Amino acid sequence: MTGESRTMNMIQAINSAIDVAMGRDEKIVVLGEDVGYFGGVFKATEGLQKKYGKTRVFDTPISECGIIGVAVGMATYGLRPVPEIQFADYIYPALDQLVSEAARLRYRSAGEYTAPITVRTPFGGGIFGGQTHSQSPEGIFTHVAGLKTVIPSNPYDAKGLLIAAIEDNDPVIFFEPKRIYNGPFDGHYDRPVQPWSKFAESAVPDGHYTVPLGKARVVREGNDVTVLAYGTMVHVAHSVIQETGVDAELVDLRTLVPLDIETVVESVKKTGRCMVVHEATKTSGFGAELSALVQEHCFHWLEAPVQRVTGWDTPYPHSLEWAYFPGPVRLTEAFKRVMQD
Amino acid sequence: MLEFYRQMLLIRRFEEKAGQLYGLGLIGGFCHLYIGQEAVAVGLQSALEVGKDSVITGYRDHGHMLAYGIDPKLIMAELTGRAAGISRGKGGSMHMFSVDHRFYGGHGIVGAQVSLGAGLAFKHKYSGDGGVAMAYFGDGAANQGQVYESFNMAELWKLPIIFVIENNQYAMGTSVNRASAEDQLYRRGESFRIPGIQVDGMDVLAVRGAAEEAVAWVRAGKGPILLELKTYRYRGHSMSDPAKYRSRDEVQSVRDKSDPIDHLKKELEAAGVSEDDLRKLEKDIRAIVTEAADFAEQSPEPEPEELYTDVLVGQY
C-alpha cells in the first residue's frame, strides 16, 4: 500500500524513505553528525528527531570511524542503523570499520553475525566544493567483497532504493548525488537548475515501496550505442543524447554491486557499442570494471572499443571544476569515437 | 598592542569582504569565516618565530595566514580560484599553504591536520632545529580518534608541539556539550599526561601570555602542551549555514560584551592612542582589503593545463 503520490525532490524523497522505514520498524535508528537537532546539512533528516525522539535519531560527535564502528556493533546485535557520513569525502576514517568489520563479519562468522547497516553519504561534484567536498569514491567500495553499493539518480528511485537498502540484510553504501538533490543536471553549468517538480520522477508515493537492489533501469531505448551511467551522469548523458541525436540506449545502473549484468549485456548485444560514464577518476574506477565485463560478455558483438568518459586522474580541483567534470563536450566527442569504427 | 589591533582589524575587514564576494558569486563552494576569533591566531602566532616554528590548521584558515603577514591579495585570489592565488586556484578557501612561513595549511578534513602537526614536531626534534609546531583544531575535531593517537605519540616521544583547541562553541550546528562527554576541553590531554590551559580567546593579550608560557614549556623539551582557547564565531559555520541552532541574542551578547577588537580598542584609547590614529589605521586597512578584492576579481583563472600539474612530483 503506497498511498497517494506527491511531488518530491531527492532530499524529500530520502527523508520520506527513512520516515516510512522507521515507522514500520523500531529497530531502525539514525545517527550522524548534525542529523538530529540540525536535521542534516542537506536537511535529509529534518523533522525525524522530533517525530521519533532522541534515542532513535541522534547527533554524534565528529568521529566517522566511531560512527560506523558503533553502527556495526548495533547492527550485529539486531538493530538496523542508518548512519550518515556528512560528505563521502569524510568517509575515509571509517574505511577500516567498513572494510574490515561491516563487509567481512558475516564471512568470518560463517553467517552467524551480520551487519545490516545503510550508510547514507552525499557524493560527487558540480557544486564547487573542491577536493574535500566533491569526490566520487564509489570504486573504493565496489572493490570490497561484502558491501553493496547503491546510487540513485532521481527522487522515485532514491526513496525506493533507500527503503530496499535499509531492509536489506547486508551492509549497503548509499551514495546520494548531491548535485541533483534539488533538480537534475544536464551538464550545462551556466544554465539555471530545473527543479525536480518539472520531471515525472518527482512523483513519489507517500507510503512504503521498494525499488529492488541489483536492477538497472533503461532510461531511454536506442539501437546504436549503449550508455552505462549512474547518479548525476545519467542526466548529463541523457541531455547529450538528446542534443546530438545519437540513437543511444541509456542504462541507469542504480546499483553497482550487485550489478544487473543481464540488462547491460542484453543492451550491448543489441547495440554493439558501449560507452561508460562516471565522475570519478578513470584509473581503477568502476568504469574499468564495466568495460571489462562488457568485453568478457559481449566480445563478439562489439563493433568498437568501449569508451570511458570519466573525471581526469587528478584530485578534484577547486578552480577548473568544469574542465574536470565529464560534461557535454567530452561526452559528445566520445560519441563520435564510439560510433566511428 | 597597536600591531595586534591592526592584524585583528585586517582579519575582520578581510573576512567581511570575503563574505560580500561570496554573496556576489565571486567565491563559490565552501567558505568559513574567522570573524569573532581573530584574537586567537593573532595572539598565538605573535609568540612564534616565523620561519623557525611551524603552524598547521583546519579549514577556517584565512585568519591564521593573515596573522602571519601573508599577502591578502594572494589569499583573496585563492578564494576566488584564480591563478594568482597562493595555491594557484587549486586549493581554494580551505587549502592554502606558505613554505616561507612554515605554514602547512589549510586542511579540509576535520581533525586530520592534528596528526600531521605531530609529524612536524617530530621533524623539529629530529633535526634539532629548536622549532616548535603549533597544531590548531576545533572543538568538533577534538572528538576525532586520531587526535588522541597523536596526543599519545607526542607525549611518549616528548615532541615539541602546542596543541591548540579553538573552542568556538559549535561544531557546525552541534554545541560542545551536546557532543563532548568532557566539555572542558583543556582536560582532554590528562590521561596522556599532557598539561592543559584554558584561555580567554577573546582577549588577545591573555592569548599572547598563554602562548609565551606554552612556547617556553615546549621549547624547554618538556613535551607537548594543550591550550583551549574559548572563543566564538559570529557567522555561520560556513556561508551556507544560517546558524539557526543558536539565538540572535546569544550572538549579539557576545559581540557587545566580548568582542576582541572592541576590547583592545578601548585599551588602546586608555593608553593614549588618538582617535585620529585609529581612524587612519582603519582607512589603511580598508584600502588593503579593497586592493585584495580587486586583485582577486581581476586576476585570470588558471589555464586548463594546470589541472594535471602537481598530481605527482614526477611527470606522468
TrEMBL record, chain A:
One of its GO terms (molecular function) is branched-chain 2-oxo acid dehydrogenase activity. Residues 8-183 form the Transketolase-like pyrimidine-binding domain. GO terms for biological process: branched-chain amino acid catabolic process; response to nutrient. Keywords: Oxidoreductase. Gene3D superfamilies: 3.40.50.920, 3.40.50.970. Its cofactor is thiamine diphosphate. InterPro entries: THDP-binding, Transketo_C/PFOR_II, Transketolase-like_Pyr-bd, Transketolase_C. It comes from the Bacteria. Its EC number is 1.2.4.4. CDD domains: TPP_PYR_E1-PDHc-beta_like. This is 3-methyl-2-oxobutanoate dehydrogenase (2-methylpropanoyl-transferring). It comes from Rhizorhabdus histidinilytica.
TrEMBL record, chain B:
Its EC number is 1.2.4.1. The keyword NAD does not apply. It catalyses: N(6)-[(R)-lipoyl]-L-lysyl-[protein] + pyruvate + H(+) = N(6)-[(R)-S(8)-acetyldihydrolipoyl]-L-lysyl-[protein] + CO2. Keywords: Oxidoreductase, Pyruvate, Thiamine pyrophosphate. It holds the Pfam family E1_dh. It is an enzyme of class 1 (oxidoreductase). GO terms for biological process: pyruvate decarboxylation to acetyl-CoA. Its cofactor is thiamine diphosphate. One of its GO terms (molecular function) is pyruvate dehydrogenase (acetyl-transferring) activity. NCBIfam families: PDH_E1_alph_y (TIGR03182). Heterodimer of an alpha and a beta chain. This is Pyruvate dehydrogenase E1 component subunit alpha. The gene is pdhA.
